[in-house]
Amino acid sequence: MKPHRTLALTLIGTLALQVNAASLDDIQGEGIQKLSEAQASQLRIDKVVESAQQRLIKYRALLKQAEGLKAYNEQLSTQVTSQNNLLDRFEQSISQVALIERQMAPLVEKMVNALEDFVEIDIPLHIRERRERIQFIKESLAAPDINVAEKFRQVVEAYQIENEYGRKISSYQDIVELDGEQREVDVLQVGRIALLCQTKDTKITARWDNDANQWRTLDNATYRNAIRNGVKMAKKQASINILTLPISAPDPAQ
Length: 254
Fold this sequence. Notes:
The structure is a single chain. By secondary structure, the chain is an alpha+beta fold. Among the domains are: 75-165; 169-243, no CATH class. It is 67% helix and 14% strand. Helix 1 (2-121) packs across helix 2, helix 1 crosses helix 3 and helix 2 (127-142) packs antiparallel against helix 3. The longest helix has 120 residues, at 2-121. It is rod-shaped, with a radius of gyration of 55 Å.
């Protein structure tokens, strides 16, 4: 009976091992499946976490951008307010400019008329040039495409030039009437205190008499060399030196 019992036990053991092996395979397969599911779950979790982080980063970036836009809008609002205030001031200035232009137009015209009167009663130094300048200004006053500021600038410039005439010595050529004859002369202008001339051959020397409104001849022996040297000085052909000139005494104060 022992051999049969041993065989039976062996069969039972073999069956048990087979059952245990099958159970282990099942357990192992289930473990692998669980592991795969866990890995898939972890991947989904990782994706969710990554998506959440990306959304958080994007949210923070959008929040920062919104703060920047808010600050920019506030800055623009301040600029718009300033520009509106500036526009208001410009409108006020424009209205004032229009008023000033209406007031300046007659003033500029009076200045030109006064300058023209002065030139006609002044000694006739550079007389053609001065008259042409005044005529040019008058034409500018009548021109509709020239604004009043430019007209005023031209008048002020003319006044400055007239002022300079009284502060310098100059010489230029002209044709004047001497003793009833038209003669080509060198004119010597000494500020506004003396206007003298001398013929090209230096035989006749004269001075302008503003009271008589004519040229009066001078003693050529006395003033010939002085006037000739003065012309050279004015043309920078000789060094500055003392000149003996016929200067009319000023009228006594009334």
